[in-house]
TrEMBL record:
UniProt-recorded name of the protein: Aspartyl/glutamyl-tRNA(Asn/Gln) amidotransferase subunit B
Species this protein is from: Candidatus Blackburnbacteria bacterium RIFCSPLOWO2_01_FULL_40_20
Enzyme class: ligase
SMART domains found in the cross-reference section: GatB_Yqey
Family stated for the protein in its record: Belongs to the GatB/GatE family. GatB subfamily.
Gene Ontology molecular functions: asparaginyl-tRNA synthase (glutamine-hydrolyzing) activity; ATP binding; glutaminyl-tRNA synthase (glutamine-hydrolyzing) activity
Keywords of the record: ATP-binding, Ligase, Nucleotide-binding, Protein biosynthesis
One Pfam family, short name: GatB_Yqey
Name of the encoding gene: gatB
Top-level taxon: Bacteria
Length: 444
């Protein structure tokens, strides 16, 4: 490929804390009646003082730990100044110089390492909706989302294809859900993707950070994994073609039109100094001792990858099954709980894995013990021999000569009665379909 893509990701994750980032308003806002969950703090009224949500701080540190980041011993909030109607204060409380976590990494399925530059905490803005009222185009603003905690993760520009970027954000979503810090639902906007894309001619070194192009295009408003892939592919092509024509590419922010599958220019990108960041004077900075950071790290649950490997070695499950069984924490926990119950009843982990992967029982509607019971019953059912089934079937035919008579006279529906008799005699261990077939054969 003549032009080599250089891609970095920025992902916003809305944390599902009970209350907002700096006030006591409810954090959950999806589908709530507009502007019913606000107070002077999240409306940015004069004189209101923010109080940081300790849970949100800790959860951001969890996320940092999950990606092997260094957790900051000193951290603070800064004001990011800009004007927009969804931001009543005229600034967003964010983190600039001293984020909570820095310099982590993630390794993809092919062993390629992706750098995580930083993870910081900030507050969400209000939500604008553009609509028509009485034939007039209007923009409405809902402040229920204003002040909801947002963790922002920024990667190094280490991805070289849309597929790599997609693999990363899917893994990120899974990790966030394992940590139970957000539902990371892209349709609801609790996980939002931005891709920074540039291309350059060829390369002589493997370290793509050595010579980055002097521009990058930030594509915003991507709300699905599929759109992420197509938006990146579109940009790579657009930029390569522009360079091919000898054009100079500029730093800019572009939106993604999912209907047309194209990106479009929104504004020339602002530089950090445009935001005139300065330390948030209303919130004291944080200092974390080694003990506190150690304690935070110790609270982290087991993450998907280590669970996957453990299932393979501990339960002798194939890698493909292990991957499926660890897709969600619920399924993985269900599997392990069922193993405990199953061991008492002689149901092996392999048998359980097989059932969960292939039969896909609705685990949200049953307990592990109930699944074991089902497997046990099915096993017992399966133990009825063909000879026994035939013996019981013949017996049922003999005992119900009148029914047999009407069957032979063309009333085929009575066959179900005989199937019922066999089921009763075998205490449900016979397979109804197999029994019906056998009875038909015996009666023909
Ligand atoms: Zn509030």
């Amino acid at each position: 490929m003549k032009y080599q893509p250089i891609i970095g990701m920025e992902v916003h994750i809305e944390l599902r804390t009970k209350t907002k980032m700096f006030c006591a308003c409810p954090g959950f806002h999806f589908g709530t009646k507009p502007n019913t969950q606000t107070c002077p703090v999240c409306l940015g009224l004069p004189g209101a003082l923010p109080v940081p949500n300790a849970q949100a701080v800790e959860w951001t540190q969890f996320l940092g730990t999950a990606f092997g980041c260094t957790l900051a011993k000193f951290s603070r909030f800064d004001r990011k100044n800009y004007f927009y109607p969804d931001l009543p204060k005229g600034y967003q409380i964010s983190q600039y110089e001293y984020p909570l976590a820095t310099y982590g990494s993630w390794t993809n399925g092919e062993g390629k390492k992706i750098g995580i530059r930083r993870i910081h905490l900030e507050e969400d803005t209000g939500k604008l909706s553009h609509t028509t009222i009485n034939g007039e185009r209007v923009t409405l603003v809902d402040f229920n989302r204003s002040g909801v905690p947002l963790a922002e993760l920024v990667t190094e520009p280490d991805f070289s294809s849309s597929a790599e970027a997609k693999e990363f954000v899917q893994a990120l979503q899974q990790i966030v859900r394992y940590l139970e810090i957000s539902d990371a639902d892209m349709e609801k906007g609790s996980m939002r993707l931005e891709a920074n894309i540039s291309v350059r001619v060829g390369q002589t070194t493997n370290d793509i950070r050595q010579k980055l192009p002097d521009y990058r295009v930030e594509v915003k408003n991507i709300n699905s994994f599929r759109f992420l892939e197509s938006a990146i592919n579109y940009e790579i092509e657009r930029q390569s073609e522009a360079l091919e024509r000898g054009e100079k590419l500029v730093q800019e922010t572009r939106g993604y039109n999912e209907v047309k599958g194209i990106t479009f220019s929104q504004r020339q990108k602002e530089e950090a100094h445009d935001y005139r960041y300065f330390p948030e004077p209303d919130i004291p900075s944080f200092e974390f001792s080694d003990e506190i950071l150690k304690e935070i790290k110790s609270k982290l649950p087991e993450l998907p990858e280590s669970k996957r490997k453990r299932f393979e070695t501990e339960y002798k499950i194939s890698p493909s099954y292990s991957k499926i069984l660890t897709e969600t924490r619920e399924l993985a926990d269900f599997f392990e709980e069922a193993i405990k119950v199953g061991s008492v009843h002689g149901i092996s982990p392999a048998k359980l894995a097989n059932t969960l992967v292939n039969k896909k029982p609705n685990i949200s509607k049953m307990l592990p013990a109930e699944l074991i019971k089902l497997i046990k019953n099915a096993e017992e059912k399966g133990q009825i021999s063909d000879e026994e089934l035939e013996k019981v079937s013949l017996q049922s035919i003999e005992e119900n000569s009148d029914v047999v008579e009407s069957y032979k006279n063309g009333k085929e529906s009575v066959l179900q009665f005989l199937v019922g008799q066999v089921m009763r005699k075998t205490k449900g261990r016979a397979d109804p379909t197999k029994t019906a077939e056998l009875l038909k054969k015996l009666l023909s």
